[in-house]
Design brief:
It is built from 9 helices and 7 strands. With 191 residues, the protein is of the alpha/beta class.
Length: 191
């Protein structure tokens, strides 16, 4: 079974992913895959630099410079997503070649990158905006304004929920959300 997990940054997807990993599931974090590709795929960097000049210097992507461009410009974000989604999907397909019994694809762009077509079931993880801002400020060491810009550049919780088969709301304690995740995995026959 392949589970597609999506939702905005800082919503708490890692709790569900950790439970899947405990069940020996293959966890494919598309953000981590993207960052790995930025280190190893020179064609990806060349494609980004061609559309966003000055964002790649000395063979490395300046994420804050690119973020300043795309998080305030919907058209620019769409252009970046077209470039990156294709590269990430190719890598996910490669990683799924061995047909694992259980896998999870963690992707904010699950639907835009057409990764949902690989999944047996999809689930949206949502959380209050204030909690998400606090989490990503702590996790990524960024300002509140930058955190808000990142969240505002993403789809709403309602959009994610409308696209997915299931939804899990992370609006309580960590223990309460973990219990919701366990209940979900029981419901779909993983636990």
């Amino acid at each position: 079974m392949i589970i597609g997990i999506t939702g905005g940054t800082g919503s708490g997807k890692s709790t569900l992913l950790a439970l899947i990993a405990q069940k020996q599931g293959l966890v494919l974090d598309c953000d981590a895959i993207y960052h790995h590709l930025l280190q190893t795929d020179k064609k990806l960097l060349q494609s980004i630099e061609a559309v966003f000049p000055g964002t790649v210097q000395n063979g490395s992507l300046d994420r804050k410079k690119l973020g300043a461009i795309v998080f305030n410009n919907e058209a620019a974000l769409q252009e970046l997503n077209c470039i990156t989604h294709a590269a990430v999907k190719n890598e996910v397909l490669r990683l799924l070649e061995n047909k694992p019994e259980l896998a999870a694809i963690d992707a904010i762009g699950l639907f835009e990158g057409e990764l949902d077509s690989l999944c047996n079931v999809t689930v949206a993880v949502t959380a209050p905006k204030e909690d998400r801002i606090r989490r990503i400020m702590t996790r990524d060491g960024i300002s509140e304004e930058y955190a808000q810009n990142r969240i505002n550049a993403q789809h709403s919780d309602e959009w994610f929920v409308s696209k997915c088969d299931y939804a899990l709301e992370n609006d309580g304690t960590a223990e309460e959300f973990r219990a919701k995740c366990i209940a979900f995995l029981r419901q779909i026959g993983i636990i």
